[in-house]
Amino acid sequence: MSFLDTLRQWDEAVTCVDRQDLTEALQMFLAIEHPNSKICFNIGCLQLLNQNLDAAEKAFDCSISKDEHLAVAFFQRGITFYKKKRFEESLGDFQLSLKALRGNQLIDYKVLGLRYKLYACEVLHNMALAEAHLGQWERAQKNLVKALEYKTDAKLNIMDRAMQSILKQKVFKAVEFPSTVLFRPNKHYVAELEKKDYLGKAKVVASVVPQDQFSGFAPLQPQSEKGPAAPKEPEVLRTLEGEPHIVRYEFIPETSDELAVVPGNVVFVLQRGSDNWASVVFNGRKGLVPYNYLEHLEMSLGAKQTQDISEPPDREPPTRPERKQGVVRGDSSSADLQQKEAQPADNLCIVKVYHAFNFAACLPSGSTYATLADKISKKLNLSSSSIVLSLTSDAESAIDEDTDMASVWSHAGSRRLTLWCHTRDLTAARTHNTEMTLVALHSYESSNPEDLSFTQGDRITLICKVNQDWLEGHCNGSTGIFPAAFVEEVSTNGQ
What sign results for the dihedral spanned by CA atoms 60, 61, 62, 63? Predict the structure, then answer.
């Protein structure tokens, strides 16, 4: 079955689910010859809805084997084992689901085509339930306490009721996934399935000049003296400038002219230097990557086919080549790059800064406060005296010239340090206990990672004003930007 046939049948099956024809939808999914991980997950959900537990387990096994990082598939297989009263296996799958969350409060699968958010507190809730059935009451209570640390307001009642049951050594209800919520194919791909008539229908053209008795052709038009214009360069050829290569090892940049890539990325090599550094293009950005981290990729534009991209090799990446005077340059100036290369590469640290927008700077580990403030202020086009840096989002715990910088740099893990940056006027307002608090007039669901989600009635601490229409604030343990029209100001008066 071709990709287009699979896509068309997948879309038709999801449409059947929308009109509650679940039996027809399941048959259409099962008829797909080579289902991907998402389609296998959909099959498992429909089988679970029909109480076909063995078939559901088999479908989720297939989904996980095709994508071992799909946390929601581990969660659903854990539910299947729970319904089959195989509590140890259920507990193991919930633990794998929590591991796939990687310490995050939730995973939003909207960008992958699944309108669902998997919360860490729900996974911990079901882990505690499986442990309760196994008689491990102390471990169940510890996991529920941990779940309360991850809880959101919407999940608060569920967690509280579960804790009351655990204290009485009684089991409680599991948190289940809505089985009719399925992975949907990419809407842009589906739109391309419709046939288009690029030629259109034939039309009869007659002269618009009353004296012209001839019909069938338009009157002659004056010609340009300069002749026909040169054909425009196709966008696809400009986009694919350079030789395609696939990345085999993760590369973490140490200077601003280097480019971060991970295994599986396809980059286009513009130039390769004699010292094994290559100037590449990836997602519209140019930078330097070690050439021994790459492998040449054969690509055919006419057939739209590429060679099979296998999994990255299970071995250590090659040694990072040394940067020399004759290294391939990107768009940066030679003088600026030479100054950066003069710094020892193994002493550099990436400093991530939270402000009205997030950005990163590269500094030698152990730099003084003056060097740190000067670097960050230049990024913001502000003076060093107008910013305040801190290790937390609370501006009152600020660092300055008198701070022991050794203790600050001790927070850097894996050569990465996180700081918060505030402006003086906002910091002064917080110091005098006039921190501005906003209340949400409407619920706002974030569509981007940098946005802040909240529900109607939530209180939001204002961090700064981004522009006339957007603000940045802190709410429910998260920081991000949000529309100013969704909130109104309330006075805290030191309360």
Answer: positive
Tokens coding 48: 């679970």
Q: Which residues 6+ apart lie within 8 Å of 301 measured at CB?
A: 236, 240
How do residues 139-195 score in pLDDT, each as one tens digit?
888 888 888 877 666 666 777 788 888 888 888 888 888 878 899 888 777 777 665
- Distance separating alpha carbons of residues 279 and 477, to the nearest angstrom: 40
* Residue 30 confidence class, pLDDT cut points 50, 70, 90: very high
Instruction: Give the residue, 302 or 491, on which the prediction is more confident.
Output: 491
Comparing CA positions, the residue from 477, 485, 490 lying closest to residue 438 is 490
- Regarding the domain with residue range 434-490, which homologous superfamily does it belong to in the CATH classification? SH3 Domains (2.30.30.40)
Between CA 33 and CA 28 the distance in angstroms is 10
Single out the residue of 276, 247, 273, 275 nearest to residue 262, CA to CA.
Answer: 247
CA distance 125 to 416: 33
DSSP string, 234-246: PHHHHHT-SEEEE
The helix or strand, by DSSP H or E, that contains position 295, with its residue range, turns out to be: strand 294-296
Distance separating alpha carbons of residues 347 and 368, to the nearest angstrom: 14
Tell me, yes or no, if the two domains 237-301 and 434-490 fold the same way: yes
Decide: 65 and 77 in contact? Cβ < 8 Å.
Answer: no
Query: Domain 3-167 belongs to what architecture?
Result: Alpha Horseshoe (1.25)
CATH topology of domain 345-429: Ubiquitin-like (UB roll) (3.10.20)
Q: Kindly give the pairing relationship between strand 277-282 and strand 478-483.
A: unpaired
- Are 297 and 306 a contacting pair, CB within 8 Å? yes
For the chain, what are the domain ranges? Answer: 3-167, 237-301, 345-429, 434-490
Three-class SS state of 117: strand
Fold of 237-301: SH3 type barrels. (2.30.30)
Q: Supply 318's token pair.
A: 């090659």
CA distances from 168 to 85, 132, 135, 165, 411 (A): 22, 11, 13, 5, 42
